[in-house]
Write a structure and sequence with these properties.
By secondary structure, the protein is an alpha/beta fold. The chain has 2 domains: 9-297, Aldolase class I (TIM Barrel), CATH 3.20.20.70; 314-412, no CATH class. It has helices spanning 43-55, 70-85, 100-113, 127-133, 137-153, 170-182, 199-216, 234-243, 265-274, 286-297, 318-329, 333-338, 362-371, 378-391, 397-412; strands at residues 23-26, 60-62, 91-97, 118-124, 158-163, 187-192, 222-227, 248-251, 314-315, 353-354. The strands form 2 sheets. It has an 8-stranded parallel barrel with strand order 1-2-3-4-5-6-7-8, surrounded by 7 helices. The two termini are 51 Å apart.
């Protein structure tokens, strides 16, 4: 888009480059399935979903808790085999508590499939959790060390997950992180498990941990950020984490997850794409990724949901529609795609849609009729507009066609 046509306040004073290199970690098939309103997808749907993750450039995915059930074990094994046989770059990971019984199934799957499975082993670390569980820090240290040792001895990479990191005490985190690194963890996962964080909290936690790693001389250890959306701050916190130099950011398709859900992976990708950080990354499968997830887990997409919702690029307002039409008449589809949209629909395989409703003008009707190869005249346009304004809602296509037929019948009668 010509810079003369859009003045971008987002660029004023923004750090450059705006975002550093970051990996994307997909939790749809693990944390996403903890949402109480979803169903566990079939294995065929899971296989299609990991192929879509691969096509979107997602680097790694948590594909389940194989220690939780036979079905979970079988599905994780099958997905790992698919990753190997298809030559995917997507790296598989699994979640488990800091107990050997959760780690050993991952070892078995790794050996059977012939691929390293990254072990995301988790334990609660906040004072409120320790109080509820009657744990002390020594208990956390021992359980963590024992679990990490099992994975490391079996040559599996370990990401050490402190649940509720955002509400954990600095001295406890310092002890837990050093213990995990000493036992061979290659990643630390900073979690906003209950959706408590603000951007300031996100920055403070990441900077604290980065300084710890420098003090430990643990430059090889990577940092993940995993968060939830209880305060509606999931996306802005994830983007803040990326700005702060996090190595891997987590998300789920459509933001599904426990309670109100996790950060939406597609919105992370969308925003980084628009910021120029994913300039060469193909996003044409992003909508399919969301639609498949919606169908597979039984979670409808709200009509007003960004990018994927039915109304994301749809207008019936006369002024808006007229501007889009004028842009199209100038022969500039990109201009038409941006004049009333902060997200260019064409970049993601969609297009602008103009409907006829009570807020519409004559331009809506003329455009709609032209798109359906119907010749318009002033009387027909006014008849359709009157029907829309009297009905108080957007007209369905069959209602517009019925108005056309009625107008023509009256004209010939």
């Amino acid at each position: 888009m010509n810079d003369e046509l859009i003045y971008d306040w987002n660029e004023v004073g923004r750090r450059h480059p705006p975002f550093g290199p970051v990996e994307f970690f997909d939790e749809t098939l693990r944390d996403g399935l903890q949402n109480p309103s979803v169903k566990d997808p079939s294995i065929a749907e899971k296989l299609e979903l990991i192929h879509l993750m691969e096509s979107l450039g997602i680097h790694a995915a948590d594909i389940g808790l194989p220690g939780s059930s036979k079905r979970a074990f079988d599905d994780v094994l099958r997905m790992c085999q698919e990753i190997v046989s298809s030559g995917m770059k997507l790296r598989p990971a699994c979640a488990g508590r800091t107990v050997a019984a959760d780690i050993l199934p991952m070892v078995e799957i790794s050996q059977k499939a012939g691929v390293p499975v990254e072990v995301y082993t988790f334990i609660g670390s906040s004072p409120i959790r320790l109080f509820a569980e009657s744990w002390d820090v020594d208990t956390l240290l021992k359980h963590s060390a024992d679990a990490i040792d099992v994975a490391v001895k079996n040559n599996l990479p370990v990401a050490y997950v402190t649940e509720d990191t955002i509400r954990s005490r600095p001295e406890v985190l310092a002890a837990l992180f050093k213990n995990a690194i000493d036992h061979g963890a290659s990643r630390l996962v900073l979690c906003d498990t209950v959706g408590h964080a603000t951007p300031d909290g996100t920055r403070n936690l990441i900077r604290f941990t980065q300084n710890l790693l420098k003090a430990y001389g643990a430059h090889h250890v990577k940092l993940d950020f995993h968060n939830h959306n209880d305060r509606g701050l999931g996306l802005v916190n994830a983007l803040t984490a990326v700005e702060e130099g996090i190595d891997r950011v987590h998300g789920t398709a459509l933001g599904i997850g426990e309670r109100v859900g996790n950060t939406a992976m597609e919105l992370i990708l969308l925003n980084l794409k628009l910021a120029g950080a994913l300039e060469h990354q193909d996003m044409t499968n992003l909508i399919r990724y969301c639609e498949l997830t919606s169908k597979a887990v039984g979670m409808p997409v709200p009509v007003n949901y960004p990018l994927v919702g039915a109304d994301a690029f749809r207008t019936s307002t006369g002024v808006h529609a007229a501007a889009i039409i004028k842009a199209q008449n100038k022969g500039d589809d990109e201009l038409a795609d941006r004049i009333y949209s902060g997200v260019p629909a064409g970049m993601f395989g969609r297009g602008q849609t103009i409907e006829i409703g009570p807020m519409s003008g004559a331009s809506n009707v003329v455009f709609w009729l032209k798109g359906h190869a119907i010749e318009s005249d002033p009387g027909l346009v006014q008849a359709i507009l009157l029907k829309a304004k009297e009905g108080g809602r957007v007209l369905a296509p069959d209602e517009v066609l019925a108005a056309v037929s009625a107008h023509r019948a009256a004209a010939t009668g």
